[in-house]
Amino acid sequence: MSDMNSILEPGMFVRHPERPDWGTGQVQSNIGGRITVNFREVGKVVIDGTRVELVLVFDH
């Protein structure tokens, strides 16, 4: 898991760098590198944090 993904906690907002059409998502859980995010446009997605580094959103 990347350093950025390791700090993600439930309630934080993120974007998927390769899926801008998914919009902003809210982290639901981060367990063992599997990050569950509820994205505005596609719903709940489980992301492998070893393959994708999510982008933290500060201006949600």
Structure report:
The chain has 60 residues and is mainly beta. Helix content is 7%, strand content 40%. The protein contains 1 helix and 5 strands. The protein has one helix at residues 3-6; strands spanning 13-15, 25-31, 34-39, 43-48, 55-56. Strands 4-3-2-1-5 form a 5-stranded antiparallel sheet. Strand 2 (25-31) and strand 3 (34-39) form a beta hairpin. The protein is globular and about 25 Å long.
Task: Please sum up the structure shown.
The model has no long low-confidence stretch (mean pLDDT 94). The chain has one helix at 3-6; strands spanning 13-15, 25-31, 34-39, 43-48, 55-56.
Task: Give structural attributes.
60 residues, 7% helix, single chain, mainly beta, five-stranded antiparallel sheet
Shape: globular
Strand and helix order: HEEEEE
The total strand number stands at 5
On the 0 to 100 scale, the average pLDDT is: 94
Into which percentage range does the β-strand content fall? 35-45%
Structural class: mainly beta
- Largest sheet, if any? 5 strands, antiparallel
Stretches where pLDDT is under 50 for at least 5 consecutive residues are none
Order of strands, widest sheet: 4-3-2-1-5
